[in-house]
Design goal:
Layout: H1 15-32, E1 34-36, H2 42-56, H3 61-70, E2 74-77, H4 81-92, E3 104-107, E4 116-119, E5 127-129, E6 135-137, H5 140-153, H6 162-178
Parallel strand pairs: 1-2, 2-4
Antiparallel strand pairs: 3-4, 5-6
Helix pairs in contact: 1-3, 2-5, 3-5
Length: about 180
Amino acid sequence: KVAEKGEGSKSRDDRPATLRARRKELRSQMLDRITEGRRLSSAKSNAYRKSLRRVMDNMTDVSLRRVENNTRGGVTLHGDWSSVGGSWQKLTGQKVGRGQRISGFYVWFTSGRPGELHIDGGDEHQSFETITGENEPSAGWHIHAHELGHAVDGPYEYSSRTEWKAAFESEAKKLSRQA
């Protein structure tokens, strides 16, 4: 009743605007921290940033904060798969297999070194089959959403839980029956 009279706390009508403003601020802070890797044109950089905004606009504040905390080592946008693969090899010591393409990865370190996110935006000339069986152009936001999901998880903080594994197996069974 206090909120209805305009006294004290914010009214319910103000909450969505406050949440949107807070999410926009978090998103801006994250986008400001991004560095650009080799062979990244300004056109690709703008497209990747637009794609990341699209994904982050659909994330909760908690998820955005987890990404921010779990990528303190940085977020790097790469211009192509070979650049991502080079970073993968440098950071993990693992070679990228012949013909293998890495569109992105999240890496965390047991030494306490902050985690890092390295992403590409895919190849607009390729397509992939969606769950519904349709071919769709490879869009950066698919890759960005996937890799940001790993950054939300951090060092397997959610995906190592029994409940998560059970939900994953249930969903995987449903998808395999649809295929």
